[in-house]
């Protein structure tokens, strides 16, 4: 029985390209599922618009006021993480950390 | 018939029957699967060899000597105070000027040079001596990750050199690794210990297109204080028909890896960090390299790993003894493994991993053919501290090595180096430790008449191939062996008569220019020994192309191969 000939270089190149394409498809599908799930999470879906007035009962400016404009709304894995805001009264800029519930130093 | 009785015996004939086994040829015409040191040598595939040294697999099925090195420039250091060249980088400014840079590592601080002048011009000094500085171009500046100090930047004038700043006062205190990703400047592992915003697991990014702003909102700890530290970053794009390409950044720690998508503050896609499906991270940050069409490669604690966006696969099993050591080989120096470097060579498509074997100098090079999935081992005349693929506009990419102890910057894997048969004058020593030849089985005796080596290209007059054969079985301390030298009778040119290659005119001259492809020289190794198996070792120096090996043997009838008293 004759042995199967080893693959040629072109056959190997084609194999590698097919493997890469298959991996890309699977990776894209996985990431697509992840991103769709994250996009539906409330902290992402209802992210405040930059420039619009924004308040939250936990977030109070050192000047005593609690109305801000949001400059950055950072989430991680769909959950709010840190928010950079500017007080509409004193114009001070600060970053609120949602994990520690305090202003970043 | 023999042994017919002559005297007195009536009617009896003594007949001896001798089984004549036909002669065999054992041919290895395809050497494309590289080295395999991890398996029983009788079980390695027919296209593999036990070990190939200083040989590449280009021209499919053949092995040929690697490119030599060509010295491009040297640092101004003089012996005995020659510092390692730990980074090479070409800064292409927006105006198109190319500023050739080099970083040398001193005892207490690194120094940045313009290597495009003779002698090199010192641009400035860093604050510390970091063995793995990194450089990238962003907003018409070169940014340097310099370890435990705030990153530095060099302006497009090639002389204004200083540390990055942040008007809000939150400039990162350090950065061992950096990346340009989606228009942001990213820093990973920003301090040896964890503080409010910095630490070994801290990831930070600048504002978009702004190297002078590092908001604290753009900072997080990835598995903070887990006993591990950031060990480099790599990027690749996942592209699928009908879907916008998604660029991922992979963050490595020593024993884990994370896939990051989006950027701080993005909602489409939302910023996410997920641990990838693997128990491997990275032990040598400068070995992280993306090979388009293959994936992200790096050296991990288990060997060389390849992440393709889905699976993380160990690809270095064939050369595991040379990485970790074995009964026969000393492995790489794992106490200095962090200094390892790698490069993806564009032509031919290779991943070359430079590793230390004693100290921080890189002396052992593992060369992985990305298409053939095969390994060879390279050794250079000088030890290396860094290796970079330099891609300047309007020129072919070139791979440069920075010396560890000789102050030289040398090119490899480019047309100029391909023409070299030496490493800047030092002959390239190559070696083929071939797959064993056997008759019926490795335990049964055969008569080995000869071996034939098909040489397709050599460049030296009277080029010599030193050969030795070992035959089993081993019955005392000295194996049955034979050795000798083949001297090629001619220079074997790739084209007949040594003619030039492809003509510059598409019509009117032959496809091979002024000549036709040449044939080869078939060199005979006389053996004439009986043994259970034969191991052929070929060694030589200079350029050679080997297109096949053949053994002529005759299997003997099954019998005890050796007798022990």
Can you describe this structure?
The complex is a heterodimer of chains A (105) and B (565). With 105 residues, chain A is α+β, with helices and mostly antiparallel strands. Chain A is built from two helices and five strands, in the order ααβββββ. A five-stranded antiparallel beta sheet of chain A has the order 1-2-3-4-5. In chain A, a hairpin with a 4-residue loop joins β4 and β5 (102-103). Chain A starts with 8 loop residues before the first helix and ends with a strand. By secondary structure, chain B is mainly beta. Helices cover 2% and strands 43% of the residues of chain B. In chain B, the strands form ten sheets. In chain B, strands 1, 3, 4, 37, 40 and 42 form a six-stranded antiparallel beta sheet that branches. Chains A and B meet through α1, β2 and β3 of A and β18, β19 and β21 of B.
Protein traits:
heterodimer, A: 105 residues, alpha+beta, five-stranded antiparallel β-sheet, 26% strand, rod-shaped, B: 565 residues, mainly beta, six-stranded antiparallel β-sheet, 2 helices, 42 strands, 2% helix, 43% strand, elongated, disordered N terminus
H/E series of chain A: HHEEEEE
Could you describe the largest sheet of chain B, including whether it forms a barrel?
Answer: 6 strands, antiparallel
**Main beta sheet strand tally, sense and closure of chain A:** 5 strands, antiparallel
Q: Outline the low-pLDDT stretches of chain B.
A: 1-12, 504-508
Strand content of chain A: 25-35%
Widest β-sheet, arrangement of strands of chain A: 1-2-3-4-5
Q: Whole-number average pLDDT of chain A?
A: 92
Q: Strand tally of chain A, please?
A: 5
Strand proportion of chain B: 35-45%
Number of helices of chain B: 2
Structural class per helix/strand content of chain B?
Answer: mainly beta
Rg calculated over all Cα atoms of chain B: 29 Å
Number of helices of chain A: 2
- Find the structural class of chain A using helix and strand composition: alpha+beta
Largest interface: A-B, 40 and 41 residues
Average pLDDT, all residues of chain B: 90
Globular, elongated, flat, extended or rod-shaped: what is the shape of chain B? elongated
Total beta strands of chain B = 42
